[in-house]
Amino acid sequence: MPDGVNYVFEGEPRAGELREVAPGVHWLRMPLPFKLDHINLWLLEDDDGWTIIDTGIALDEVKEAWERIFATRFDGRPLKRVIVTHFHPDHMGLAGWLTERFGVPLWAPLAEWAFARMLSLDTGPGYAAGLRRFYAAAGFDENMLAVIDRRGNSYSKRISTVPVALRRIRDGEVFAINGHDWRVIVGTGHAPEHACLFCADLGVLISGDQILPRISPNVSVWPQEPEADPLRLFLDSLTRFQPLPADTLVLPSHDWPFRGLHGRLDQLAHHHDQRLEETLDICAQPRTGVEVLRRLFTRELDSHQLFFAAGESLAHLHYLMGQDRMTRTRRDDGVSLFQGR
């Protein structure tokens, strides 16, 4: 457990079970087919019905767990809406299935819905070609690039459908659930417009992936926005959570609910300070993105982790470029070389 982070509950609910963590706020956990093997989802009592926050990945076992909850815990009350914090498949994965099954709207930030729609539909040959160009410029060799061809568009395989319409939610918007006001706080860097939800009445922040208790959320440069500086966006957005009360109960998408928000915000910023200094040291001489990746991530990476690590390495390099502490040149073969100033 990181210093200053206090986990509030022992253990976690099994798939298909609920645990009430605040009045009318229920914690459920669904499996993921990755090394990070679970996601926390939230079911809120909503007057005469229910609101779901995040949905899980599109797997039959996740649908079956939802069906058990519908049968045993809904008590005949209807689902009123599905809120998705951001577009990643463990959050958006079953949004289409749920909204179609119950005839309810999807609530989400516009950028998250649009990104999900784009990725779910971008399944043609141009998709893989664009990825190959991006990762080749980062220094991927042919064996690494071949993983792209084998994976194809992995996003479209991990979701049901993305609803064709949404009810847009915006930063600062306040809406009522079960007689309590919930305010949207948008974080950036991990996703374009990641919606966190804060309820002052209950002292609860549903933080999604933006603030996790033990690991740093992935902050990456992706092929769809190759010149982005997501780490600057992420660090800037952390300050939006500093005004929240020190005793806020934080409900993250991974690991366990915790208290110690302010200390955790400081830890997340400090973690990236250390990574940036490591990146500068690595780039005392010209390095490719892959060379930086191999030195920042020394453990063995599977194909899923490889792309996250590449994106994170580029995010640190781009941040340093934006701070005028790193230069980039291109070799004749199109591969980028980075060197610290």
Give structural notes:
By secondary structure, this protein is of the alpha/beta class. It has helices spanning 60-73, 89-92, 95-102, 110-121, 125-137, 142-151, 154-157, 230-238, 261-282, 289-296, 303-322, and strands spanning 6-7, 19-22, 25-31, 38-46, 49-53, 79-83, 106-108, 167-168, 174-177, 180-187, 194-199, 204-208, 249-252, 258-259, 326-330, 336-340. Strand 11 (194-199) and strand 12 (204-208) form a beta hairpin. Helix 5 packs antiparallel against helix 6, helix 9 packs across helix 11 and helix 10 packs across helix 11. It starts with 5 loop residues before the first strand and ends with a strand.
Blueprint (SSEs and pairs):
Elements: E1 6-7, E2 19-22, E3 25-31, E4 38-46, E5 49-53, H1 60-73, E6 79-83, H2 89-92, H3 95-102, E7 106-108, H4 110-121, H5 125-137, H6 142-151, H7 154-157, E8 167-168, E9 174-177, E10 180-187, E11 194-199, E12 204-208, H8 230-238, E13 249-252, E14 258-259, H9 261-282, H10 289-296, H11 303-322, E15 326-330, E16 336-340
Parallel strand pairs: 5-6, 6-7, 7-8, 12-13
Antiparallel strand pairs: 1-14, 2-3, 3-4, 4-5, 9-10, 10-11, 11-12, 15-16
Throw out a few tags for this protein:
341 residues; alpha/beta; Metallo-beta-lactamase, Chain A; seven-stranded mixed beta sheet; five-stranded mixed beta sheet
